[in-house]
């Protein structure tokens, strides 16, 4: 009786080809997931400063920098900046699709309402922006 001594070369080549096809599909999807996750992380970092921003303005102060509202200037996800009515995040350490893009929380001085925007408005980049911050 003949025993099976292992896989043939053809069988191994088929398995390698299947793995290659799966990797070719999965890598772009993973990169897209990483890009949208980085944008969401940056948005969450600057969103934390809105309450402190309001508190400082309501007590008669002015916002001159991120440290005034308890935010770091640079984090693992973004470089944070502020003006008298905005908090911005310039995305860092991200996939090339979103690296260097800016997320902005802008406060309307009259109504006090915050509005989120990004510069990801190009048709190929809008998919990376959170649904609540579409440009």
From TrEMBL:
Cellular component per GO, a single term: type IV pilus
GO biological process: cell adhesion; type IV pilus-dependent motility
InterPro entries hit by this protein: N_methyl_site, Pilin, Pilin-like
Keyword Transmembrane recorded: yes
Transmembrane segment boundaries: 12-30
Keyword Hydrolase: no
Pfam families membership: N_methyl (PF07963), Pilin (PF00114)
UniProt keyword annotations, A-Z: Fimbrium, Membrane, Methylation, Transmembrane, Transmembrane helix
Record-stated family: Belongs to the N-Me-Phe pilin family.
Designated name of the protein: Pilin
Organism: Rheinheimera riviphila
């Amino acid at each position: 009786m003949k025993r099976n001594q292992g896989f043939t070369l053809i069988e191994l080549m088929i398995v390698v080809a299947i793995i290659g096809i799966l990797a070719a599909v999965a890598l772009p999807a993973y990169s897209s997931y990483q890009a949208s996750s980085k944008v969401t992380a940056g948005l969450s970092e600057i969103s934390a400063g809105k309450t402190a921003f309001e508190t400082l303005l309501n007590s008669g102060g002015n916002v001159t920098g991120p440290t005034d509202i308890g935010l770091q200037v640079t984090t693992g996800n973004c470089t944070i900046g502020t003006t008298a009515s905005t908090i911005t995040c310039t995305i860092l350490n991200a996939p090339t699709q979103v690296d260097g893009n800016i997320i902005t929380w802008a406060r309307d001085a009259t109504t006090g309402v915050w509005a989120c925007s990004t510069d990801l408005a190009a048709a190929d980049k809008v998919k990376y922006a959170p649904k609540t911050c579409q440009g």
